[in-house]
Design goal:
With 330 residues, the protein is of the alpha/beta class. The protein has twelve helices and 13 strands. The strands form four sheets. The chain has a five-stranded mixed β-sheet, with helices on both faces. Helix 6 packs across helix 8.
Amino acid sequence: MNNRATFPLLVADIGGTNARFGWLANADSPLSNVETLLCSDYARPEDAASAYLAKYQSGVRPARSSIAIASAIDLGPIKVTNSHWLLDRTEFARHVGAGQVDVFNDFEAIALVLPYLTTSDYTLVGPVAPDRRYAMGVIGPGTGLGVAGVVPVREQPGAWQTLCGEGGHVTLAGASAYQNEILRAALNIFSHVSAERLVSGIGLPTLRRAVADVRGLGIDQELGPEEIGTLGAARTDALCEHTMEAFCSFLGCIAGNLALTIGARGGIFIGGGIVAKLGNFFSESGFREHFEAKGRYVDYLRAIATPVITLPHPGLHGLVRHALQGKAVE
């Protein structure tokens, strides 16, 4: 890695709702000036980045920029999955003055930091602690549903390789008669019910309607994702509570599938913006029960940790970790 071409480094984590920016002056500096901007306030990602730089780094331009984006990564322009934004590397570099722009999937960026998290960076759900000898995964419901993993590189101690896909769009399956009823109700709304269709911010209103249909409950008014999560976690609204219980149970099923698929015996970390706000509701929910309920492999799953990430802006920290792998200096 060219030392002079690395710092200062502009990092960005672009989701469907928010874009988070941060700054790394050099290899010995901490991540600084972290700010969250609403995507809807800007026409393009480079406009948001320019506003950020004007506020915090007036007259200074990054030598390099690392961007995590909620989308499948391609060589051409990248459409953010649940936003109107389109990221063009050339245009972004030109507007912010960066010599190079590196792009990662948003959950791939979180996966980059998993091997370095300490006990103060997460809260355990269940009795098992992470084990960094093995592969690890991360799944997170925010606006959408992100999925990624990281595996140790054979015969290279301390080296890790990320796994990046679009696991949020796999077909959602039920693990009980009740879950199957919810899925049938959702199929009346969508021809394909992916995991993200129900287990995400954009999916919560659909999940609420499906749960209401199955339970024979009326809906007086439509609620947004934040209201559903808040009322459900507080157990002050019966339908929202049932909705969030179904949400946590489905998430447990999906997380268990991820653990089996990539052999994540080191742990499945829970990220995204929703679960962290649920507090004790999540640990008391059916998440862990459904995570472990894999028939003959129940003992395999019982030995896998499911920590909830509490470190603020883990995607930005992952991008920083990647930049520092070259041990570059200013």
